[in-house]
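Quick one: structure tokens for this chain, please?
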Amino acid sequence: MVKREALKEKALREGKEWKEDEEYHPGQYISGTLREQLNQNRRHATSESVLRIIGMVSILIFFAFLIFFAKYFTLFLETIR
């Protein structure tokens, strides 16, 4: 409030018109944007964890296949001869 009054006095000294805007709230746009981002992060948090689990399972399957392939590849080559 003190800053608002100081700005009002400055505007009157400079000869500018001062309007009281009751609908104006400092930081309203910023806080609204932050609130929207928070809600968006909450909605997408589950999809990130699901993707992380799918990625880990895929890596495990890949390594299991790699071990299986390394173990039985020589046996496979011998049967081709």
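The radius of gyration is 33 Å.
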